[in-house]
Design brief:
Elements (H helix, E strand, L loop, with lengths): L24 H10 L6 H10 L13 H11 L5 E8 L4 E7 L5 E8 L4 E4 L3 E3 L8 H4 L2 E4 L2 H16 L12 E4 L9 H12 L13 E5 L3 H10 L4 E5 L5 H7 L8 H15 L3 E7 L7 H11 L4 E7 L13 H13 L4 E3 L13 H11 L29
Parallel strand pairs: 4-7, 7-8, 8-9, 9-10, 10-11, 11-12
Antiparallel strand pairs: 1-2, 2-3, 3-4, 5-6
Helix pairs in contact: 5-6, 7-9, 10-11
Bound molecules: S-adenosyl-L-homocysteine.
């Protein structure tokens, strides 16, 4: 396994054009006034934007003469769909987006009977270098702007509202930061995105705090900052090993922030917000799925306001690793539960569309950067997964 360097500071590249979603309400009103229009037009633009309306012709509450100028200045198209793949009878849809500079990111919309969740990207690529993750293996291209992140959720909300997903028109209820990138390494933009996701109309999508999940590799200073924000979103921590020796190799940032520090920071978040955090653990055959490690993880988390979300590894091409077989998964679950730790296993949504973690973008980058294009994985055990429990589990709450 090649060891990639950790990259905490994103390369500086040309900024995407300014967008309404990058601005606070006050800034947007000032920008509209500067263009010679009454400030309240900013609220009208915001209402259209968050409803997914991009065609100026549909903005009938704006004077015809102002529509093109205002949308041109404040609602530039930032995300161009390159490809959409569907699975699960159309209820899982993965979109690959091209950004203004050609960078590629992806988001996945998953509709369940009781909710619709979009998994969004916060960076193009990722600098965290986790060896089992397709995105991590391709390195960090750049941070996304707020509007580039928010736009993925807005597109999902519009797809749901517009009845594009089988099951009739519906509402986007959940957002998870589990696409490409490390959200806490792009902190200011992610914080502003959270405000847009949680904000009421016309300046937001009006989602509830508990239905938004920020998943982090364990950047302790970022977890501490998030704790101070007073936004009780759900925190997910990608632990993947209960001991530093193994975690140093699976999650290289562990060489800087150790298991106990990460868990302490998550505990402080839970204490402050009253919200149970989620511990992500990719089950990798014979690497981190031993019964002793389940017990160690159980002892680490017993009595804490935490629950474990086990993810059978979705093997990436070229990786020597595989998902844990079902009996090992069951044993792991049983041992954690014996320690009183609530535990669920994620389902296999999107497995035939490279539904996990940067694989679609990695496949598309294949020709450009010399990595082999990805084959669709054909796992022998339940594999990828973005969320939701299989019957093994009980109560996934993202
Ligand atoms: N940077 C964030 C978001 C990453 S993706 C984080 O580290 O949490 C969301 C989850 O998918 C993380 O827990 C990540 O470790 C996990 N993941 C990445 N690649 C995977 C793979 N090949 N199989 C299973 N889970 C994977």
């Amino acid at each position: 396994m090649t060891a990639l360097p950790l990259v905490l500071d994103a390369p500086r590249r040309g900024k995407p054009p300014r967008h309404l979603a990058d601005l606070t309400r006050e800034e947007a009103r000032a920008a509209v006034a500067e263009l010679g229009h009454p400030a309240f037009r900013a609220d009208q633009l915001a209402r259209h934007y968050f409803r997914g309306v991009t065609d100026p012709a549909q903005m009938t509450d704006l004077p015809a003469a102002a529509r093109e100028a205002l949308t041109g200045a404040l609602l530039p198209g930032l995300l161009t769909p390159v490809r959409t793949l569907s699975a699960d009878g159309g209820r899982t849809r993965k979109t690959l987006w091209r950004l203004h500079d050609g960078a590629l990111v992806e988001s996945v919309l998953m509709r369940y009977p009781d909710r619709a969740t979009v998994c969004i990207s916060s960076q193009a690529g990722c600098g965290m270098a986790c060896p089992f993750c397709a995105t991590g293996q391709n390195g960090l291209t750049r941070n996304l702007s707020t509007a580039e992140i928010v736009g993925q959720a807005v597109a999902a909300a519009a797809a749901m509202a517009g009845g594009e997903v089988p099951g009739g028109p519906g509402r986007l209820s959940n957002v998870v930061f589990m696409g490409m990138g490390e959200p806490l390494a792009n902190y200011p933009r992610v914080r502003q995105t959270l405000r847009a996701l949680l904000g009421p109309a016309p300046w937001g999508l009006g989602l509830s705090q508990r239905s938004v999940t920020v998943s982090t590799v364990g950047l302790v200073p970022g977890i501490r900052k998030l704790t101070e924000e007073g936004m009780a979103v759900t925190l997910a921590v990608s632990l993947h090993a209960p001991d530093d020796e193994l975690r140093d190799t699976l999650v290289p940032i562990n060489t800087r922030y150790k298991v106990t520090e990460v868990v302490e920071a998550a505990d402080a978040y839970a204490a402050r917000t009253g919200r149970r955090y989620s511990v992500e653990y990719a089950l990798i055959r014979d690497v981190n799925d031993q019964p002793e490690r389940a017990d160690q993880l159980g002892r680490l988390l017993a009595g804490k306001l935490a629950h474990v979300n086990l993810i059978p590894l979705n093997p990436t091409p070229g990786s020597p690793w595989d998902a844990s077989p079902l009996p090992a998964q069951r044993e792991f679950v049983a041992r954690l539960r014996a320690h009183g730790v609530p535990t669920t296993v994620r389902d296999t949504r999107g497995q035939d569309i490279d539904g996990a973690c940067g694989q679609l973008a990695a496949a598309d980058l294949g020709d450009d950067v010399g990595v082999p294009a990805l084959a669709v994985p054909t796992p022998t055990t339940p594999a990828p997964t973005l969320e939701a429990p299989v019957p093994l589990g009980a109560e996934a709450d993202v």
